[in-house]
Design a protein that fits this description.
The chain is mainly α. Helix content is about 70%, strand content about 0%. The chain has one domain.
Amino acid sequence: MASSMENIPNIAKNAVLPFNPMRGLLAGGAVEYVAVEVIVSKVLRKLLKFEDKGFLELTYIHALSLPFLGGASGFVDPNGPYTATYMDNIKDGAKGIPAVLLAQWIVATFSRGFHIPFFSMKDVLITAAAKTLSKPLVKTVFKSLPEDMASAFNVLGEMTKRQNVTAFNYAKK
């Protein structure tokens, strides 16, 4: 029994890991990546004239998606580095869509109560597009970023990769 309990993913640890101030680079990478996703979402919503959401709500959603990134994409290969091709970065960004949709449902549940997730199709599309386009956008500026910022993005990517591998191995059992 003890050996099977060891294989259960540590949900509480993963939930706070990206925001733990004791992990400076990881917390910095989380803040940077959430900022990129929120800005991309705001710009897309403005350009496409979709429902505008506040910065705070978008920040909640995208920040809450970080702990789920690796586990929610455990059925596919882990993300590659930012230096990979644009197509690989687009694919990697799209792997985060299940995590952000789960986060969106959690935020809606806290604000409205338990419900069946009736998302508007426009909102799902814009959220998915923001998640998908964020990683290639970071790739575009990655080589010109200061070393600390680039390292923070890499540490966040490594966290996601480790969670993905753990979820994939756990699902195979």
